[in-house]
Amino acid sequence: MNASQRDEQARDVGLLFLRVSGGLFLLWVHGLPKLLDFSAQLQLIEDPFHLGAHLTLSLAIFAEVLCPLLIVAGVLARLACLPILFVLLVALLIVHPQWSVAEGQFGWLLLILFTSIFIAGPGRLALNIRFAGAFRYA
What we know:
The chain is mostly helical. It has one domain. The chain has helices spanning 3-36, 38-44, 53-73, 77-95, 105-120. The longest helix is centred in the first third of the chain and has 34 residues, at 3-36. 27% of the residues are buried. The model has no long low-confidence stretch (mean pLDDT 93). This is DoxX family protein. It is a multi-pass membrane protein. Keywords: Cell membrane, Membrane, Transmembrane, Transmembrane helix. Pfam families: DoxX.
């Protein structure tokens, strides 16, 4: 194995780590609590676009449960980053504009993480590679 191949392998392992750790973290900290305690979360969720608590919570669950699972698997990873990035930007800029960077640091770090995945893609250690190019650029 030459240096170029080692660099590519290290990049793919790094992207795998980023996808899996970031996706599972978002799922565990935000997604599963919303999904598993849906009725209590209906009373707590902010509704900045006046869509109704049920639809807003359902969209948040889509972004924080289904999308991280797709990213972890490496299927449509770039596309799956978009709802997450949207939810993060809404939370940071519309729902909590009064937060300092320190107060919103978790959200900003997630924004950096999922923007990185969006830019770099899932890498070669992803299920999309197994699907004959159907998801190659997603």
